[in-house]
Amino acid sequence: MFRDVTTNNGNREPNADKELYRQLRRRSWEELWMKEVPLFNGALPVERLKRVALIRAVGVVFSESGSSGQGNEVRMWLRGLLEDPAEKIRRYAMNALPKVGAGHEEEGDMLALLRSTQNEREKKFLAGALEKIGGSETLAVVRGVLPQTEQKTRAAVARSECPGAVRLDRMLEDFEGVRIHLRGRRGLEGVMCSEVEAQGKFRVLEVGSGLVAMEPTAPFQLADVFALRCFGTAGFLLGPDGSLAAVMTSPLARKILTAFTEGPVRYRLDFVSKGHQRGAVRELANRVYAMCPEILNDPRSALWSMDIFTASRSETVELRPRWSPDPRFAYRLKDVPAASHPPLAACMARLGGKAEVVWDPFCGSGVELIECALRGGVRRLVGTDRSPDAIAIARANFAASGVESVEADFVCSDFREHGPIAGPGSVDLIITNPPLGMRVPIRDLSALISDLLAVAAVVLKPGGRLVFVNPVRMENPHPLLALKSRQTVDMSGFDCRMEVYVKSAKG
Ligand SMILES: C[S@@+](CC[C@H](N)C(=O)[O-])C[C@H]1O[C@@H](n2cnc3c(N)ncnc32)[C@H](O)[C@@H]1O
To answer: What's the whole-model pTM score?
Structure first.
């Protein structure tokens, strides 16, 4: 049984409901449903009000650990509470209902209450609950009356009835004013630029830290942007002129959204590097809806993200397609701990250049090798990893990549035992992201990297290349390997060197 929180003079503490909720929240579902709910049901009205936090706890604990077979019973109980004479109890019930899978019937109950109540606070809470569970029936009632609920419900209806898609194959004919920001790792901007220039469909305008700004040179499809593999995310720059809402609904935003979206436009808002900004998001979404009701804010499975970047004095918006998975890397069915981000692997493959025989000594899930194969010109791939799970994953990912006519050997072995699969002077390119000693401690990281360089000097053909992320600072590490390039790269929180070595022609 719960302990109520009362002061010495018998009054309840101001935070009594919260405190009681905290106590109940820790209980098991069975205890709440079998003991506390019957007590609540049998209590006098004044006692029920003191125990109102139970309703909130039931919603939350059921959503986490309740048995789905009991869902109906729980919803029936909460629906009954919507008819309670006490407004506070009704309010708690309407807040809990969305958590327990409320649907059409509960929507009907809440709409009936919305029509009958004169209490403004109750109307506000009903609107909030309907924003979470409402469908077309809610839309018919709130249209023109409750704009925020209207916009959220329209987004929910669109999501369930016509989810739509961002289309890679649509053409944007009127490309004037379009500027695309490719974002990637600090240190790899040069590789991103070289890919853009080699493709020839966009012109590089500006390069910043982890950023390449480009503009199209002709009508283009989104597929042209996503044919580039070295960036992490791509967004269309909107603004900076005008208020955020004006920028988000500008003719430029509308033409991009119309061109590339099938179905209703649904977006989510992200104040980049500012964390959750619930109030600001709500306010901005409401303003955008008032200016352009065709653009719907939908934090759940939105097609687009409007990323808001704050600079010293201005804010800019980038309109970014949200994919899951990114269509460029859909082959990655599974990964391993410390797996490389595919755009990093794509940058490495680009740095490696064309090669017929490629070996990744620490292949993990195989992304570096697959990215090499996707660039073309590869005849044979070899992946070694001492983890059998990694080898199984690399094989599955390679199969999903659809790369044909490349012989691929994935072998569970220590890279030092390379003899049977990668003999002396047989490999054009070694490409690898070795253990970096950050997540999985390595006893002697320097020795491991020295061994890798020694093995590379044996296995590479004369003129062959080694591309790898080097966690150890070393100058002239091997007499047969000449450093061709080195760049410091942000590896998500720590810096490493991306190095390219060429084996001497004499070796
Ligand atoms: C950073 S992860 C590689 C990630 C990989 N590039 C990917 O994207 O999945 C390093 C891998 O090296 C493997 N490894 C560690 N020591 C090894 C060794 N001596 N020989 C072969 N593989 C090793 C680990 O099992 C791990 O899968």
So the answer is: 0.87
